[in-house]
Every structure is written in structure tokens, then in C-alpha cells.
Specification:
By secondary structure, the protein is an alpha+beta fold. It is built from two helices and four strands, in the order E-H-E-E-E-H. The longest helix is centred in the first third of the chain and has 12 residues.
Length: about 90
């Protein structure tokens, strides 16, 4: 898998995840039968890390990764899950 992550200054709120972590999350979210060709971290967000994931022979997908729980404030806990519960796609 080709993997590209953003360079961030030390101490930045957002912390990239590893290629192995992206692969594990994609298997869990999209199924283990899909072959991941590449994962490219996208710039522009302030809270989640966002990756554009390309699969062999399929449409690309967006993987959003929340900060680990210890980096979230009380109000932000499970923010993405709460957003989806209030306004699902």
C-alpha cells in the first residue's frame, strides 16, 4: 500500500496514524476482502485526520479518524459518533 501522511509541527493537536493502523481500520470498516492500493492523508481539517483510500477496482473512500480519547475534551468525546446519530448520511 502506498501511504502518504502530512507533516505537522511537534505538539500539533492532530496526530497522524500509521499505515498499519489505516489498514486495520479499513479492514474493519470496509471489509477484509478489499485490496487497499493507497491511503493519502488530506489537509484542511482541524479535528479529525482524514484519509482518501483507494481500493483495487473500486471507488475510493474517505476514512475519518478521531483523536484518541485522552486528547479529546469532555464535550468532544465521541464527536463523530454523536454527529452521525443526530444527522446520519
Amino acid at each position: 500500500m502506498e501511504f502518504q501522511q502530512l507533516e505537522r509541527p511537534e505538539g500539533a493537536f492532530q496526530e497522524s496514524v500509521s499505515a498499519e493502523q489505516v489498514e486495520m481500520m479499513c479492514r474493519r470498516a470496509f471489509g477484509s476482502d478489499r485490496q487497499i492500493v493507497s491511503a493519502v492523508e488530506l489537509d484542511g481539517g482541524m479535528y479529525n485526520n482524514t484519509y482518501r483510500v483507494e481500493f483495487a477496482g473500486e471507488q475510493p473512500a474517505i476514512l475519518r479518524v478521531a483523536p484518541e480519547p485522552s486528547r479529546q475534551s469532555r464535550i468532544e468525546r465521541e464527536l463523530m459518533r454523536n454527529e452521525h446519530a443526530v444527522q446520519p448520511c
